[in-house]
Design brief:
The structure is a homodimer.
Chain A (H helix, E strand, L loop, with lengths): L1 E3 L2 H13 L4 E6 L5 H13 L2 E6 L19 H11 L3 E3 L3 H4 L6 E5 L6 H5 L3 H16 L3 E5 L3 H13 L5 E5 L19 H6 L2 H14 L5 H13 L4 E10 L12 E10 L2 E10 L1
Parallel strand pairs in A: 1-4, 2-3, 2-6, 3-4, 6-7
Antiparallel strand pairs in A: 8-9, 9-10
Helix pairs in contact in A: 6-7, 9-10
Amino acid sequence: MQVVRELDVVKEIIRDLKNKGMTVGFVPTMGFLHEGHLSLVRTAKSENDFVVISIFVNPLQFGVGEDFERYPRDLERDRELADSAGCDLIFVPAAKDMYPPGYATFVDVDRLTEGLCGASRPGHFRGVTTVVAKLFNLVSPHKAYFGQKDAQQALVLKKMVQDLNMDLDLFILPTVREADGLAMSSRNKYLNSGEREEAPVLYKSLLLARELVARGERDPLIIGKNMEDLICSARGAVVDYLEIVDTEELKPLKSIKGRCLVAVAVKFGTTRLIDNIFVEV
Amino acid sequence: MQVVRELDVVKEIIRDLKNKGMTVGFVPTMGFLHEGHLSLVRTAKSENDFVVISIFVNPLQFGVGEDFERYPRDLERDRELADSAGCDLIFVPAAKDMYPPGYATFVDVDRLTEGLCGASRPGHFRGVTTVVAKLFNLVSPHKAYFGQKDAQQALVLKKMVQDLNMDLDLFILPTVREADGLAMSSRNKYLNSGEREEAPVLYKSLLLARELVARGERDPLIIGKNMEDLICSARGAVVDYLEIVDTEELKPLKSIKGRCLVAVAVKFGTTRLIDNIFVEV
């Protein structure tokens, strides 16, 4: 497995591979890999000849006062994990190469980015779509893989690929969870032991929503109130958002119908966690 | 020479060509081809195995009250001209396929797009960069060709390609002119015979600027005043803008130094013409 930092080098390696008729799978990440990432890599490896992981803590997608500086970084650990999962190349670009002085070009997806995390984190999705557009152009994969944990990101990127006619297939794979239901996230590392104990309440609240729907409840307000009560029963938990939305436009629903996305963001101290599930009636 | 309207078909044709090791040159246009376009096609043909022209009057780059509706269209004429210049494929997408209902993704280049035509035509360059990003993804050319007549567009697109790490080379070829100096443009067709007679004043004003610089004048204000006087001496000519800017950032210069771009936009009735030249000291 190679580790490549230079943009031109990664382009050339991929060009050579593609000239030989090989297929390329791509897993963009911010590093500090966990089983969620590794499940993407293993799927990518099973579907492509060559798998690239990018590791780039993208400054553009962090807002002022967010955790860009303290976001966990450990390339040595990531390298071993990526290798063990079948990754062929880790691409680790430098911020100064991704955004050289005078950088001026941005990709925006309207509407889909307005609610949920887009409302809580202004500018976040512009950062995500811009960096992913760049990474797609650099790696030019046949297939790219993202996790369902970042449900809105997944939909926004699918929309970008479709709207800009990008020549690749984008796959969204299921959220991988800890034994107690907590969605895997590099940010789980921020939690102290007390917070870690309470953190599964996100998933519990989502399961509660599913159960209420299964029992016949169709009112998002009632479901939301029950979820909120449950989340607030966890020590230190503060709801950032809690929404039941349609799966196309991510617009809040007036009643549960068809396939819906239940999405939550909860803060424990300065740590913000997100999670989501689908419910269907 | 083929004429292709379907997005998927053009993608597949290009993929097959590239799999055979052929190189692809691309000339994006809004049609109503003239010698300026054809010179791009001939250069593309001399540098690539296969040349694609796109013809798409892009609604996104026209403002309210601009000439989208009346922009000249004549595919039969374009087809013959393109064929004669060595074009291998004309790609004529439909607006409903380029911007299907729910379309939401846009590419923006900051700063470079603020002055000159960007100031006169708000939203214009967002339309240009978005459609060209889409066309580049659909055609995935090795090389793309644009005319120097649209100087700001050329710089903005170069910036986009560089910033987004697009895998192609972009070439800017010299403006092609009528015998009397008028820059070739599909919009010249709008001019009535009186306006057509006066229209070379754009180029004359640019040559005047060059002459003044050659004679030692270094003050953009004095040069601009002389140009303006000349332009206003033409019947019906109204200056939209008239600027002397640097060639990197397109910022107005305080004094003529190094390589500068002299750019003008002039209206004759409802017809807006642009032109530019470089001057160097």
